[in-house]
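Q: Could you fold this chain for me?
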Amino acid sequence: MKGVIKKLGRSDRPYYEAADVQELLGVGKSTAYRLIRSVRTSSIKAGVLTAEYPIGKIPKKLFNSQFMIE
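A: Sure. Below is the predicted structure, expressed as structure tokens.
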């Protein structure tokens, strides 16, 4: 198929969404969003992440380092 873009699976994406955080940490949806928002906000203030990064998503490397995953 020409011109078809491959849809990325969870493991292929460079970021986590709330469902991923729920699964990783065993928390509820609202807690997952709160954690993403907290890490995102502090990272923007520290200059590690730009404000243009999509809301509700967090880079895997950044999240993993904050929560000592892997």
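A (continued): Strands lie at 15-16, 58-59.
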